[in-house]
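Researcher: Let's do a round of design. I'm pasting the structure tokens now; please hold your answer until I've finished.
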């Protein structure tokens, strides 16, 4: 498999892209690399992808009721698959409740 950084570099439109554009493109590439030919992930694959690629954000969230609801929904309904749009909603939901997000917000920037 081709590394994400190399895949990113191959997208000419991102050559002068902003940090945010590159972050979004990275998310899309990670998802696409894991998705099936129809562009979807099983719920088990989604859970695994979150654990391996988003661990810093979900670490320590296990006791939060909303986190438990999200993860238990991934453990149910084995046949339903997640598309990119649903994956992004899930990703944003988990990020918003994360302790890491609060830590990021508290980072001081200097010039």
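Researcher: That's everything. Go ahead.
Model: Designed sequence:
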């Amino acid at each position: 498999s081709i590394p994400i950084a190399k895949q990113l570099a191959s997208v000419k439109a991102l050559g002068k892209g902003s940090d945010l554009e590159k972050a979004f493109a990275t998310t899309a590439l990670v998802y696409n690399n894991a998705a099936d030919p129809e562009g979807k992930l099983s719920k088990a694959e989604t859970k695994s992808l979150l654990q391996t690629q988003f661990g810093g954000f979900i670490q320590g969230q296990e006791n939060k009721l909303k986190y438990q609801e999200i993860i238990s929904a991934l453990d149910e309904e084995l046949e339903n698959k997640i598309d990119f749009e649903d994956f992004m909603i899930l990703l944003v939901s988990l990020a918003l409740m994360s302790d890491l997000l609060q830590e990021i917000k508290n980072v001081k920037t200097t010039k």
